[in-house]
Amino acid sequence: ADPLPPGTDGASCLEKGRVLASRGAYEPALEALLEAAEHDRALGRGPVRELMLKVFAVIGPQSDTSNLYRRKLQALLY
After folding, report:
1. CA-CA distance, 70 to 65, in Å (whole number)?
2. Is the torsion defined by CA of 59, 63, 64, 66 positive or negative?
């Protein structure tokens, strides 16, 4: 992952993830979403998780990428 610019917060990372996902850049989007969850656990349990589930549905809920990022999110939040 790219180093975060100073002052980056969970909301910025969430927005970056939304933009990347809308462009079809799913893995970078998932990375940005994980960063958002690292910054803000409440975001991680709500909007981040919801958007990640939508990305998983697009790339295949049981794909290797979905499984990897699902595990990363669970490890981060629980």
Report:
1. 8
2. positive
